[in-house]
Amino acid sequence: MGKTQKKFGKGRLDQYYRLAKEKGYRARAAFKILQINQKYGGFLEKSKVVIDLCAAPGSWCQVAASLCPVDSLIVGVDLAPIKPIPKVITFQEDITSDKCRAQLRQHLKTWKADCVLHDGAPNVGTAWVQDAYTQSELVLQSLKLATEFLVPGGIFVTKVFRSKDYNNLMWVFNQLFNKVEATKPPASRNVSAEIFVMCRGFKAPKRIDPKFLDPRAVFEDLTDPTPNYEAKVFNPEKKKRKRDGYEEGNYTQFKSMSVLDFVKGNDPIALLGSMSEFKFETPEASTEQPVENEEAERHEKPATLEELRNELKTVKKLEETSKEIKELCKDLKVLGKRDFRLLLKWRLICRSVLGLDKKEDGTPEPEQDPTANMTEEEKIEYELQRLQDKEAGRRKRERRKKNEQRQKEITRMQLGMLNPVDIGIEAAQVGSDSLFSLKEVEKSGQLETLAKGKMNVIVTNEEANKKEVEEIEIGENSDEEADRLEDELDVMYEQYQGRRAENDAKYRAKKAREEQPDTEWTGFEEPPSESDVDDDDDGIKLDEDYQSSSGSESDDDHPKPKSLKLLTELEDNDVKINGLSKTAHKFFGQSAFKDIDGLDSGSDSDEAINKIVELRKTQYKQNGDTGDKNKAVSDKDDKNSFEIVKEVKEPNQKSWSDNDSSDDEMDDKEHTGPNIDIITAEAMTLAHQLALKEKSKADVVDESYNRYSMRDRDGLPQWFLDDEDRFSKPIRPITAEAAAAIKAKLRALNARPIKKVEEARARKKMKAARKLERLRKKSDIIIEDPNKSEKEKAESIQKLMRKASKKTTKPQVKVVVARGANRGIMGRPKGVKGRYKMVDGRMKKEMRALKRKAK
Ligand SMILES: C[S@@+](CC[C@H](N)C(=O)[O-])C[C@H]1O[C@@H](n2cnc3c(N)ncnc32)[C@H](O)[C@@H]1O
């Protein structure tokens, strides 16, 4: 594929771009210096020595060469190589290096420059590694060279960017030049932040204060010679939020602050989101990144250093300030939602210990018993309210837990994970109360001990209860707050995803794909009726997949409502059908149990299982006898598996045995399943293995029960789940044959002629056919001519054929490249006869670009 050059960025194909091409300038930047030169009285025409700093590709040098007096000296330097320009000396060097200065000196000898031009911009050349300087520093470096090489009264033209350094630079220019003016030539795009500064009348002082040319002094010291950090801590100035970049004076990504600021601050979420570290130091010691301390501002009396130290001591001493909390504070950027929640809970504790907890409106919370001033009746009411709130909180937690459980169950059902545990025994009971529940261990505070390997420590019931009570108490106070914060975090993540979707088309496409239901695994699906497919949206389809997995009988027994929602379906999960739990009922409702009558009538399970075994045996026999096409893929299947049961093939159903040879006979029209094209080496490997019977359907199903499929997603933050989905997936083996097959397939695909070629061929064929037709007609007329003898007729037809088969050659147009002696000439180039066409390297690209634009 040809590399298409981006020509539309910043509207590259503007008039100056075209004009530069026309005039043979190497860059449109040439017009900037032309316009500056024109505005300031044609200083280039009077300059006998010109230095062009950061000159590549060389358009400013070209302009200088054309405008400066004939015998003038023009020297251009750049990090990137510059192709030779007549009358210009160029070399490749970093303008900030001593080598560059030495080389300039060598070229200039004893002369001084009338004019120093500088159009440098870091990271636009090819030498990325060396481009370490910022624009402002580069300007200062060029000024340094200018001061060394300029004649008194000389001119310095430089490019600066609108930034906070702009004023400082202007200040320095004004110290060294008589007239300093900023200008933006029309050729400079409005969208660009660049401005050109015209410095005239170099003062050429005998001694220049090195500070003027020292970036540290110019960009920092001038703005704030003696920063008073202490003042910043105790009387933090209100900073304006910079929505368009880094905070002023803060260009580092790593931000740390005192943990006290976090505890006392009003917006813990914002701090958790923006900071990298909370230090266990007083704010005094962590002044590198002064932050807004609104709390301190709100206080009438700012805390003294001594008070801060005491507060920090108290916080450190707290039992809750565990090792884990300290660890979490060290790197906030890697924390997950659970960690944030821990930190926020811990913050609330610290706040209550420091007596900082205040209501939103600022009124202090009553510190003593709130019922102290109440009447007996009020006390009872208060107590009732408290208990009600407590109960509501408990119910809310329970509800959430139940929902999570339900979600888990749905996922299991969707994955087809039906095992004895799920039949009759609801998975809910296995979750949190199980013996090895880490949550329980964590709650009882034994996680650390377990992690160290001391398994013999046993928690007494009393201790565990005490801890639990404490936890609940803390939880109750902060639960609402934590819920709110959790919701906020979720919203923030959603917003982030939204922003990403806005900017990233690939991401949007991926999300859209993810939202499509997975069509490859149809499970035990019944063929959906046409109306179902047409009417229902994705959500309902999911619902129906789920429904259909319960087999066709269930359809008869319980007529399926059209828009049955999944949640409503599961809400009455406890309902018993035919003495079985709903899950069990669904399991036995699959088509595998279709022919077992006893099941529906509620016969006992032993009887049902006996029937299944019986049925399996007969099916097995049948398969063996008749060599049934639909027999299970492998005979070495596990004895207990149901694969061996003859599959009732529905016309629309696509099954694993589709790759059997019998399928060749299947009518294509009938086959309405998805036409799956094998495009990955993994899939091809699997297909080979299945075709060669190296693997059975059961193996494939078995393999799908891996550590990735049983992933517990409950309570995990979405960002984490997203990451897991991206990176934590099984690596399927591929064989060399499969890889070769896919490669060959792709090669064949690439070798296919593109549509245009195919069309051209067809046109050619059509023309030939038409020509033949015409010939036939003409020869018919000749044959039917009664006035001609047979000989004459034969001659005429032969003549006709000769004429038709004669190749018509188009007159050749000679292509002359406008290079060397032919460059820029008008009229016919020397030694060229006949038709010719002048071309240059750029023309082709330009024409293509124009066509593209016109399109
Ligand atoms: C906008 S281009 C200059 C265009 C030039 N005036 C022209 O008309 O062709 C900026 C140039 O600055 C150069 N540059 C950036 N940092 C440099 C450095 N430290 N030393 C020398 N050249 C540098 C880049 O290599 C790049 O070619």
From TrEMBL:
The keyword Nucleotide-binding does not apply. Residues 381-392, 497-516, 626-652, 786-796 have a biased composition (Basic and acidic residues). Residues 236-412 form the DUF3381 domain. The active site is at 159 (proton acceptor). Gene3D superfamilies: Vaccinia Virus protein VP39. Keywords: Methyltransferase, Nucleus, Ribosome biogenesis, rRNA processing, S-adenosyl-L-methionine, Transferase. Residues 636-855 form the Ribosomal RNA methyltransferase SPB1-like C-terminal domain. It holds the Pfam family Spb1_C. GO terms for cellular component: nucleolus; preribosome, large subunit precursor. It is found in: Nucleus, Nucleolus. Residues 393-403, 800-809 have a biased composition (Basic residues). Residues 470-491, 527-538 have a biased composition (Acidic residues). Residues 25-202 form the Ribosomal RNA methyltransferase FtsJ domain. InterPro entries: RNA_methyltr_RlmE, RNA_MeTrfase_FtsJ_dom, rRNA-MeTfrase_E, rRNA_MeTfrase_SPB1-like_C, rRNA_MeTfrase_Spb1_DUF3381, SAM-dependent_MTases_sf, SPB1-like. One of its GO terms (molecular function) is rRNA (guanine) methyltransferase activity. S-adenosyl-L-methionine binds at residues 58, 60, 78, 94, 119. Residues 281-300, 357-410, 470-572, 615-674, 786-812 are annotated as: Disordered. Belongs to the class I-like SAM-binding methyltransferase superfamily. RNA methyltransferase RlmE family. SPB1 subfamily. PANTHER family: PRE-RRNA 2'-O-RIBOSE RNA METHYLTRANSFERASE FTSJ3 (PTHR10920:SF13), RIBOSOMAL RNA METHYLTRANSFERASE (PTHR10920). This is AdoMet-dependent rRNA methyltransferase SPB1. The lineage of its organism: Eukaryota, Fungi, Dikarya, Ascomycota, Saccharomycotina.
